[in-house]
Each structure stands twice: as structure tokens, then as C-alpha cells.
Amino acid sequence: MAPVHLLLLALLWPLIDQGDGACAEVDSDTEAVAGRGFKLGCISCKRRSEVEGFATVEWYFRPTGESDFSPIYSYNEGVATIEHDDFSERIDWNGSKRSNDIQDASIYLLNVTFNDSGTYRCFFHRTLSYDNNFSKKVVVDKVVHLTVVAKATRGTASIVSEVMMYVSIIGLQVWLLIEMIYCYRKIAAAGEEALREAANAEYLAIASESKDNCAGVQVGE
Fold this sequence. Notes:
It holds the Pfam family V-set. By secondary structure, this protein is of the alpha+beta class.
């Protein structure tokens, strides 16, 4: 079961990277498993979606225990460049597509190693274009602290979310069972009532016929 914020990301994903400028900022996950792929999330929404924008992206990395950041990746007008040999052929663009107005600068790290543990910084170099030929340059940065582990661990949020899912499923099944029993009893009661009414009607019809026959015999006498 994915952590809660990943579930939230899955729900909000249709709102992200759409042409109408809709956007929702969600923090990146911070724990990767060695030998697997991992998405480094980086989302920066514009405050005013109606303002036209253009952005380029840069990613930097500082390994655990070191003090300096090194450039590892850049993205400009659909052109991606891996700038560090340690990440050669191991980074794919996983952010905004079909637009240079980038709000999602996420990347996908392939074949994660323990040496990938450390701090990642994502920079948006954004130019906002207003009316009257006025433009404004803005720099936004996001930080991701990544830990690489040998085996995936489950946090409290993940366990709680899974328990709540099963509780909801069991509760729904119990409710459906109660509804089925109620409906069955209601239909059965209605059927019994209909049978009683039919029997009473038949009895009244026979009694009426017998009364008529008796009256006919008395007249004949």
C-alpha cells in the first residue's frame, strides 16, 4: 500500500500538468529501494495560472557526508541533458510535457544505488509575461532528502491507510449484507401478505357463491 501522500498524488494527478494551468503541489517521497527506479518529485505552481510563463529546470545533487552540490540534470525547451557521469543514462524526464510553462519538474531515477543517498535541489528559472510587454524573472527551488535502503519499509501512515481500507471494505460488505436481509424479509412479508389477501378473496368468493346457491334453493322451495 502506497503512503498517504502518494495516494493523494494519484488523486490529484489529473489536475497537474494540464493545459488550463491547474496545479497542485505535492512533496516528493524520500525513500528509495536499491536496484529499483524512483521518482524525484518537484512541483512549483504559478500563483496566477492566467499569466503566461516559460521555465527551464536544473537539478543538483549533494551526496551524504559531502558539502558541495553538483549539477546533474537540466531541461530546456524539451531538451534534457544529463550533466554528471554518475547519472549517465539513469535519469528520465518525468515532468510537464507539451508545454514550456513547466510546473512539474519531476525526474525518474533508474537503477538506484546507495551512492544516490543525499540531498537533491530542483531549480525553476521562470519568466512570467504580463501585459504591456512587462516580464518578471523568478527562481524557485525545492529540496528532496533521499535515503536509499536495501528493502522497502512501511511507515505508520502506510499501515494505517491499509487498515482503514480493509475496515471500509468490511464495513461496506456488512452493510450490503444487512440491506440484502432487510430486502429479502420485506419481499417475503409482502409475498405472505399477498397470499393472505388472495386466500381471503377466494374465501369470500366461495362464501358469496354458497350464499347465492342457498338463496336459490330457498326460492325454489
